[in-house]
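User: Here's a chain of 254 residues. Predict its fold as tokens.
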Amino acid sequence: MISFLDPNPAGSPTVLLLHGLGANASSWTLQFDSLIEVGMRPLAPDAPGFGQSRYDGRGWSFKRVAADLAGLLGELRIGPVHLVGLSMGGVLAQQFVLDYPQLVRKLVLVSTFSVLRPETLSQWGYFFRRLLVVHTLGLKQQSEFVARRVFPEAGQAALRRMAMEQIATADPRAYRAAMRSLGFFNSRRRLKEIKVPALIVTGANDSTVSPAHQRMLAGGICGARQVVIPEAGHAVAIDQFAAFNQILLEFLLD
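Assistant: Prediction complete.
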């Protein structure tokens, strides 16, 4: 069963917000007020194994999670929705729009990729260390490693603690399976099938998914455009939330 945050159930249209790896629905709370103020319905689910959504251990894949989300929308009698996904959530959003195009109005892909191919030795090393740590030392050490990478500034200690708490409480089986799924994901040849209006939002200082890879993603979707937010990292919806919210609303209300 999918757990979700639904702070404005009377709003319309619905904006389905999909979180990143290790995070959960609460990572979108900085967007809730802005969306509610214009009458929309933010709906933020926890992916299986993250937040309050339990993982049954019977296989974790983007296709399966997309089907779970389509089922949730059916149960709530919602659709079509504006679809927003960050990092892993952006990959899930691609899977969802490809499998259920009739359920999507507009698509916003944030800090994400069509295929995970690091460009530098540093990036390869980062992903290899993440894979090694999560399979040997566990999620507590993984949470510390990732939080330092995503929120590296001295003034971001509170954000690092938040990220560590969220990652450390994930189901290790789901986290490892999601990491493997990210490594094998490749939508590059199918991006041309996406026909809804699409926006790619990029943090200029993203050290996890390079702005160049995100530019390639935008180039593969007909009519998509990329917006780069200065002084923002991988978690652009958090570390530069005011600028992100403005860009998001301008696109959704256009």
